[in-house]
Amino acid sequence: MTREQYILATQQNNLPRTENAQLYPVGIYGWRKRCLYFFVLLLLVTMIVNLAMTIWILKVMNFTVDSPLVLQSDRNVTVNARNHMGQLTGQLTIGADAVEAQCKRFEVRASEDGRVLFSADEDEITIGAEKLKVTGTEGAVFGHSVETPHIRAEPSQDLRLESPTRSLIMEAPRGVQVSAAAGDFKATCRKELHLQSTEGEIFLNAETIKLGNLPTGSFSSSSPSSSSSRQTVYELCVCPNGKLYLSPAGVGSTCQSSSNICLWS
């Protein structure tokens, strides 16, 4: 017998021996076990009911992955935004007659690049779209001034500036230029057309200048050649008040002879 075997055998012989040792069962038994099973079953039933209610709500509200979110109401649909203190910072109300938004700044952005298409606040309204198109028959009505560097009609369309009941005024400190590169320029009025230059001059530059419907004066002359039926040449005369009139041309000036037409003006 080796030394290790001898020491092991000696230790086993020296251990106290207990007779009739009592054994205690380990675990949950009796009513505790039944209560545990009952609570587990109750938890399982609650989970099943919650899952069923969730599926039912998703089905009723039409919450699906591929379909948009639809909010329906018999009256108004109101979406509120509040800060950390519970104060109302923004509100969107969709009603039967109008859609109202109450906030400090309202913006509409493009879906592609995120640029601002429309923004409004207390100070100004900004439209960032490339083109603003008004298709109403009455057009756009502005209560005050409109500032723009360029007014242009659509291709193949006429541009018309009109004031149906009042005056149309075009002013510029450095000049107003109206040009028609490939057409005519017409100015029509019911009463009087005034061309006035306070410090400069009025310059008419054209190959032919025509003044139609000018009044024609008459004077008595013994010469049969001066008969108005055969008159083809006239003299342009000016009244002291600036009125122009025609006088049948003669050997000399006939404006003094037919100046009685100035008395009619």
TrEMBL record:
InterPro entries cross-referenced by the UniProt entry: Sarcoglycan (IPR006875), Sarcoglycan_gamma/delta/zeta (IPR039972)
Keywords per UniProt: Cell membrane, Cytoplasm, Cytoskeleton, Disulfide bond, Glycoprotein, Membrane, Signal-anchor, Transmembrane, Transmembrane helix
Biological-process GO terms, alphabetical: cardiac muscle tissue development; heart contraction
Domain of life the protein comes from: Eukaryota
Coiled-coil positions: none
Membrane topology note: Single-pass type II membrane protein
GO cellular component: cytoskeleton; sarcoglycan complex; sarcolemma
One Pfam family linked to the record: Sarcoglycan_1
Segments traversing the membrane: 36-58
Subcellular location: Cell membrane, Sarcolemma; Cytoplasm, Cytoskeleton
UniProt keyword Calcium present: no
Family note: Belongs to the sarcoglycan beta/delta/gamma/zeta family.
Designated name of the protein: Sarcoglycan zeta
Lineage, uppermost ranks: Eukaryota, Metazoa, Chordata, Craniata, Vertebrata
Gene that produces this protein: SGCZ
